[in-house]
C-alpha cells in the first residue's frame, strides 16, 4: 500500500505516482492501464503532454474492468501558459476534463509561472511555447494573481478538488500566498541530487505545502534535448556512488534515488513503460537509507536546472523570461 501525503486542502495524495510526460500517445492508454494494474493510483498529466485523451482511455478501461474505482484514483493535470488569462482557465479545464473523460481533477496546477498569448485549441492543441507554432513568443499581460483567482474558482465549482503550482521559486510563492484565498496544496519542482533546492523545500514545509519531485533521475530525461549539462554530467543511474549505496541495500540506483526523495518527505512521479520497472519504482519505499547515505546523495548538488526556458529558446526570445 502506497503511503499518502495529507494535503492542506484535506485530501490524501499518494506519495508515489506515475508521470505522463513524454509518454507517446500511441501507447499511453496501455501504459496507464498497465500502471493501474501494477498498483499506481496517482497519474500526473498536463495539457502540454498531448496525451490526455489516450491516458483517459486507459483510466476508463481499468474502471470498466473493475480494477479500480474513480474515487481511488488521484488524477493531476496542469494549466498551460497560453491559458493564463482569467477567462481562459475554466474553459480549458473543462476541455481537459472532457479529454480525460472525467468530471473533476484531484489536483490542477499552474504548469509554469509564464503567461503567453492565447492560442485557440481549434488552431493548435496543445499550443506549445510559440504563438505561431514555430518561433514567435508572445507574452500575455495576465498576472499570477489573475490566474490564481481563476484557479480558485475551479475548487468552488468542483472542477478540481485541490489546486497548486509547478516550477515556482520562493519569491513567486511568497507573492502568491499574500493574496491566495485557497492556498496551493502542492508545489511541483524539478528535484534530483544535482538540484536539491533545500531552501525552497524548507519554505514549502514551513507553509504547509506538499512538494512533488519530477525528473528524479536528473539528466536522464533531458539528454535528447542536447543540453550541455545533460550531456556532460555523469548520469545518476550510472554513478558509482549511487550504485554502491544501492548494493548496500540490495536495491537498484533508481530505487535509491527515489527513496532519497521520499524519505525526505517528497512525493515522486517516475514513469516507465516496462512492467518490471513500474513495480520496482512503486516498491521503492520498503527500505530506509542511512542519514549518512542521504547526506552523501545530497552532496551531489550543483544547482543545475534542466527544465527552464533558457535551455529551450534562442537568445532573441529570452527577454520575456527575464
Automatic annotation (TrEMBL):
Which pathway or pathways does this protein act in? Carbohydrate metabolism; D-xylose degradation
Q: Could you say which residues bind substrate here?
A: 111
Q: Does this UniProt record's set of keywords contain NAD?
A: yes
Task: Give Gene Ontology CC terms.
Answer: cytosol
- Give the positions the UniProt entry annotates as the active site: 49
Q: Where is the site described as Lowers pKa of active site Tyr found in this chain?
A: 78
NADP-dependent oxidoreductase domain mapped to chain residues: 17-299
Q: Which GO terms describe its molecular function?
A: aldose reductase (NADPH) activity; D-xylose reductase (NADPH) activity
* Regions annotated as coiled coil: none
Task: Give the UniProt family note.
Answer: Belongs to the aldo/keto reductase family.
Which named protein is this?
Xylose reductase
Q: Which gene encodes it?
A: xr
